[in-house]
């Protein structure tokens, strides 16, 4: 900068020292218009710094150096300390190994925080947080533990001024526009399963180019899940209590945190942006003035309603209203007041709601028939209290369901004289039930959706796939039309259809539904609810099928954590979770852990007296497969045979029978009974094809099993044929690096080697080795196996 | 034959821009200030604080008592002490950096009530930034040195520099804004 430029900067700066922010803004605009934007940038930046500088250099004290600065944490070199807070210190750091020096903010927690717990949560949340790719969100980049066991998080470094400070220097319309952007950013996060939980001015920085950047998204939860959730695990009081300045009433009460919590915080931020003063918290649960008046006041008031359900339904809705205000349109918050009052009225006068509702709706001139009105208003009320559905609603619904089922059984009674079916099977009953639900419950969509869902799942369990699909899809369509987008009943319908998709080899369709369903449940029910556990379990099973074993372990462990947390003792849900976890551990070849998982699960099932159940047979069969992998084949024989007998009696012609057949086939093959094994696998293949068609992962499993059994009996021609069919099928329907296809390749290699075609065998093995290195990692036993087989081939060739 | 100059005379020469005079003045107070600073720093644990300006005042009182130096008043002493203090703190900071024992430069903690980004700063970085500021605006840089390291008031600073208090106020504000921007990430952000 030349001396002359400096003089001009100084003169402009000085001229702006004693004037209002508006005058400053006008001056900058004038400079830009005059083509002096560089000068305007420089002066503007200095004015910004002047506002932000506070007591900079005026009240200073000297401290000793921080020993962390200059050291390395993970791959990061700590450059200097940016500041400290209750949780620990924040540093500016750079990746020590990168070619370009990207600066990051590194948040190092104080010693004494529960690092293991934080790490566990971090591992689990990492994927979700890392997916928050948005220009207005500072990304969570990394995290880990230092050599001393202190957890740290690495975030995108943001340089800007805190929202409150920025607000003091900008005009109201600018502030409101920025606020709308903040809301939309929060909305984006909500759509990605992340609630901020700690929105406050110091977590929203405005950069030099006027863009807001939200920092610490999801961090509050990592550090302290109790910030909203009734499940207080007694931990040492290692951290300062949460600053409640911007916390919602439900957070203060220690209740569950939802997206509505962020909307409350946004309301407080809006109030502060408008009035310039931080709302004080006086009475518990309610902010005290200064609050804005007029339409903005109405918007703030709606965002700050004590009951989450009475606030804006989403951050986007809040943004819309602010923008409506900016555009001079009437705001929804005003209209909301009427609804709000109506709801209060309905709540106060539970008796005669229908009458009141009629009057009210007549007042609002909706002009619909009276009976329908009552239903609609009741439905609206349900939406309002959706997160804690009232017992009476629930009772009403279950009464309706039982009445329906009672009538159904009556109808199906062979001695009855109505349109009954003689000697009905369960399947017949379900079929009739679905038909009746479709026709007779049209005016009770909530009951209809629920029944169709239950019937659909039962049909799925019975292997009636076509009818199951139609029924579950119908249930979801009705649920979407009937319930709000964050209603747990919608989540249930999504979950059930996703189960169908996953079971029938359509995992790609299942995953988004599972995730959506999980999102709704987590928001509505909190992180520790059993339904959330069910969703995690289902996702875990899906990941297992997709070959994403580590993801599967994480999801299943989270599911188990929740189930154990909620259990009063050993419960079947835990056994189910342990069984699924065992299956993943088998794939990861962590066999002792897998066996331990299965044994714990079996003990639970036995304690529950369920030795004859499919739970029990499933677990026995799976434990047998561990024994087979450990080479203890004869030990597995008797229990697996016993399981097949039970399954054939209880669930004939189902996927359970098919899988038990396969399992027994593998055991027989392992004890040297190749011919018996082939028969079992052939039977399984026929059944799998009948259940799932030809294009299904389970069919491929059967084909591979057949190939292995054929190889054992010396039928090389058949073996090669089956192995190639399994490989081709897997390549068609599984994700590109799914580990299963490399299993088929390895089996094919063995067959080719036996046939004497060593070059072809080597080629298959090489491909299998590469694939396993990619998908399972260098250390996985299957990778080692392929490497050793390749070495042997090299020796013999 | 070295003649020991009177501090007031040295100070007068320094004000007129004689760098030799500044060196000599600093040499007179440097040792004492450093002793005091060392003792203080050694006593404090990490995170504990001590005021640089308080240091300078303590040094002045000690010198005034023990040596009966004919300083032309407290202001002149503090002006010199400010320069000395800057050097002590910076060399202490750099020494630490060089020793790689923890490696951090000595920092200054600002008011703990302030937002995170404003609270602490690196003395060595402040020194560098002050050098850079002096390239554009030497007087503003001097104002920072006197006020921050020497603890002089606006009026005292004006007296030392021979300008009006109003000018010092503008210098001070501009320098603070400029340094704040330099030290709290603007550079890192680009």
Describe the protein:
- The complex is a heterodimer of chains A (797) and B (190).
- Helices cover 63% and strands 7% of the residues of chain A.
- Chain A is α+β, with helices and mostly antiparallel strands and 797 residues long.
- In chain A, the strands form three sheets. A six-stranded antiparallel beta sheet of chain A has the order 2-3-4-5-7-6, with helices on one face.
- In chain A, a hairpin with a 2-residue loop joins strand 2 and strand 3.
- In chain A, helix 2 packs antiparallel against helix 3 and helix 32 runs antiparallel to helix 33.
- The longest helix of chain A has 22 residues, at 391-412.
- Chain A starts with a helix and ends with a helix.
- Chain B is mostly helical.
- Helix content of chain B is 72%, strand content 4%.
- Chain B contains ten helices and three strands; from the N terminus they run H-H-E-H-H-E-H-E-H-H-H-H-H.
- In chain B, strands 2-3 form a two-stranded antiparallel ribbon.
- Chain B is globular, with a radius of gyration of 17 Å.
- The relative contact order of chain B is 0.11.
- The interface between A and B is large, with 49 and 55 residues.
Physical arrangement of strands within the biggest beta sheet of chain B: 2-3
What is the helical fraction of chain A, as a range of percent? 55-70%
Main structural class of chain B: mainly alpha
Taking all Cα atoms into account, the compactness measure Rg of chain A is: 32 Å
Low-pLDDT residue intervals, each spanning 5 or more residues of chain B: 42-50, 66-70, 96-119, 186-190
List the helices and strands and how they pair.
The complex is a heterodimer of chains A (797) and B (190).
Chain A (H helix, E strand, L loop, with lengths): L2 H13 L5 H13 L3 H17 L7 E3 L8 E2 L2 E9 L3 E8 L7 E7 L5 H16 L9 E6 L5 E6 L3 E3 H6 L3 H20 L12 E4 L4 E3 L4 H5 L25 H4 L6 H17 L4 E2 L5 E2 L5 H10 L11 H12 L5 H17 L4 H11 L6 H15 L6 H22 L13 H15 L4 H17 L3 H18 L5 H16 L3 H19 L4 H16 L3 H18 L5 H16 L3 H17 L6 H16 L3 H18 L4 H16 L3 H19 L4 H16 L3 H18 L5 H17 L2 H18 L5 H16 L1
Antiparallel strand pairs in A: 2-3, 3-4, 4-5, 5-7, 6-7, 8-9, 9-10, 11-12
Helix pairs in contact in A: 1-3, 2-3, 6-9, 6-11, 9-10, 10-11, 10-12, 13-14, 15-16, 15-17, 16-17, 17-18, 17-19, 18-19, 19-20, 20-21, 21-22, 21-23, 22-23, 23-24, 23-25, 24-25, 25-26, 25-27, 26-27, 27-28, 27-29, 28-29, 29-30, 29-31, 30-31, 31-32, 32-33
Chain B lengths: L6 H9 L3 H25 L5 E2 L1 H15 L6 H27 L7 E3 L6 H4 E3 H14 L1 H12 L4 H8 L3 H19 L2 H4 L1
Antiparallel strand pairs in B: 2-3
């Amino acid at each position: 900068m030349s001396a002359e430029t400096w003089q001009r900067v100084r003169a402009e700066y000085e001229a702006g020292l004693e004037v209002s922010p508006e005058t400053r803004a006008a001056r900058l605009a004038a400079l830009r218009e005059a083509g002096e934007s560089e000068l305007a940038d420089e002066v503007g930046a200095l004015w910004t710094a002047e506002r932000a500088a506070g007591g900079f250099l005026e009240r200073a004290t000297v401290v000793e150096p921080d020993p962390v600065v200059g050291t390395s944490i993970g791959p990061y070199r700590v450059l200097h300390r940016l500041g400290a807070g209750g949780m620990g210190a924040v540093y500016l750091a750079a990746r020590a190994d990168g070619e370009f020096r990207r600066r990051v903010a590194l948040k190092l927690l104080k010693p004494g925080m529960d690092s293991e717990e934080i790490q566990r949560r971090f591992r689990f949340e990492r994927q979700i947080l890392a997916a928050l790719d948005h220009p207005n969100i500072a990304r969570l980049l990394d995290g880990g533990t230092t050599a001393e066991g202190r957890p740290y998080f690495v975030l995108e470094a943001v340089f800007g001024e805190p929202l409150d400070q920025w607000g003091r220097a900008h005009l109201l319309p600018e502030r409101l526009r920025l606020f709308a952007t903040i809301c939309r950013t929060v909305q984006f996060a909500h759509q990605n399963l992340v609630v901020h939980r700690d929105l406050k001015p110091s977590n929203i920085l405005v950069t030099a180019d006027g863009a807001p950047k939200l920092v610490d998204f999801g961090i509050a939860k990592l550090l302290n899940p109790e910030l909203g959730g009734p499940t207080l695990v007694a931990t040492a009081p290692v951290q300062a209590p949460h600053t409640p300045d911007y916390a919602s009433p439900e957070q203060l009460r220690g209740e569950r945190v939802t997206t509505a919590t962020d909307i409350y915080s946004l309301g407080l931020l809006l109030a502060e942006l408008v009035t310039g003063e931080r709302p004080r918290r006086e009475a518990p649960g309610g902010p005290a003035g200064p609050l804005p008046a007029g339409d903005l006041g109405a918007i703030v008031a709606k965002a700050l309603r004590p009951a989450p359900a009475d606030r804006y339904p989403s951050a986007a809705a809040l943004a819309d209203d602010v923008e409506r205000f900016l555009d001079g349109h009437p705001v929804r918050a005003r209209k909301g007041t009427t609804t709000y009052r109506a709801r209060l009225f309905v709540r106060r006068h539970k008796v005669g709601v229908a009458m009141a509702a009629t009057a009210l709706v007549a007042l609002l001139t909706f002009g619909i028939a009276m009976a329908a009105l009552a239903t609609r208003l009741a439905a609206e009320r349900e939406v309002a209290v959706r997160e804690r559905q009232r017992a009476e609603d629930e009772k009403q619904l279950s009464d309706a369901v039982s009445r329906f089922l009672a009538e159904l059984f009556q109808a199906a009674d062979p001695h009855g004289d109505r349109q009954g079916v003689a000697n009905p099977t369960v399947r017949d009953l379900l079929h009739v039930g679905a038909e009746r639900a479709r026709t007779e419950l049209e005016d009770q969509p909530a009951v209809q959706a629920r029944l169709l869902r239950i019937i659909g799942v039962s049909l799925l369990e019975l292997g009636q796939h076509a009818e199951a699909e139609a029924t579950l899809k119908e249930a979801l369509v009705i649920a979407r039309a009937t319930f709000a987008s964050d209603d747990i009943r919608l989540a249930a319908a999504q979950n059930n259809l996703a189960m169908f998709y996953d079971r029938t080899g359509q995992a790609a369709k299942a995953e988004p539904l599972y995730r959506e369903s999980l999102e709704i449940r987590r928001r509505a029910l909190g992180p520790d609810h059993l339904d959330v556990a069910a969703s995690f379990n289902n996702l875990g099973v899906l990941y297992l099928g997709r070959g994403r074993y580590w993801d599967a372990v994480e999801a299943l462990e989270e599911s188990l954590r929740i189930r154990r947390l909620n259990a009063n003792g050993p419960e079947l849900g835990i056994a189910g979770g342990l069984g699924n976890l065992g299956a993943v551990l088998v794939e990861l070849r962590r066999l002792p852990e897998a066996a331990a998982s299965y044994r714990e699960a079996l003990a639970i099932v036995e304690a529950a007296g369920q030795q004859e159940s499919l739970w029990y047979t499933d677990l026995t069969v799976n434990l047998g497969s561990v024994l087979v992998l450990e080479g203890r084949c004869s030990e597995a024989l008797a229990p697996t045979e016993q399981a097949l007998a039970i399954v054939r009696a209880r669930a004939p012609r189902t996927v359970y029978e098919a899988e038990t057949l396969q399992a027994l086939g593998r055991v027989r093959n392992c004890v040297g009974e190749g011919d018996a094994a082939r028969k079992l696998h052939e039977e399984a293949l026929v059944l799998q094809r009948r259940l799932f068609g030809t294009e299904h992962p389970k069919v491929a499993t059967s084909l591979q099993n057949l190939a292995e059994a054929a190889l054992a009996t010396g039928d090389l021609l058949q073996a090669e044929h089956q192995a190639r069919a399994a490989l081709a099928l897997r390549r068609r329907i599984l994700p590109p690096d799914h580990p299963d296809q490399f299993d088929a390749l390895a089996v094919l290699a063995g067959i080719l080697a036996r046939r004497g075609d060593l070059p072809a065998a080597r080629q298959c093995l090489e491909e299998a080795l590469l694939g396993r290195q990619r998908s399972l990692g260098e250390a996985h036993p299957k990778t080692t196996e392929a490497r050793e087989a390749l070495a042997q081939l090299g020796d013999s060739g | 034959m070295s003649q020991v100059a009177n501090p007031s005379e040295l100070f007068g020469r320094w004000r007129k821009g004689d760098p030799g005079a500044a060196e000599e003045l600093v040499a007179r107070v440097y040792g004492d200030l450093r002793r005091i600073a060392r003792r203080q720093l050694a006593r404090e644990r990490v995170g504990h604080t001590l005021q640089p300006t308080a240091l300078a005042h303590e040094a002045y009182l000690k010198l005034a008592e023990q040596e009966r130096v004919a300083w032309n008043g407290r202001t002149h002493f503090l002006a010199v002490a400010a320069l000395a203090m800057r050097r002590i703190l910076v060399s202490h900071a750099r020494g630490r950096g060089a020793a790689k024992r923890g490696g951090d430069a000595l920092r200054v903690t600002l008011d703990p009530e302030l937002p995170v980004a404003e609270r602490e700063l690196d003395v060595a970085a402040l020194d560098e930034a002050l050098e850079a500021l002096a390239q554009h605006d030497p007087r503003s840089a001097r104002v920072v040195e006197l006020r921050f390291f020497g603890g002089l008031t606006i009026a005292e600073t004006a007296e030392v520099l021979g300008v009006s208090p109003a000018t010092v106020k503008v210098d001070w504000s501009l320098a603070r804004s400029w340094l704040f921007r330099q030290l709290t990430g603007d550079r890192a952000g680009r």
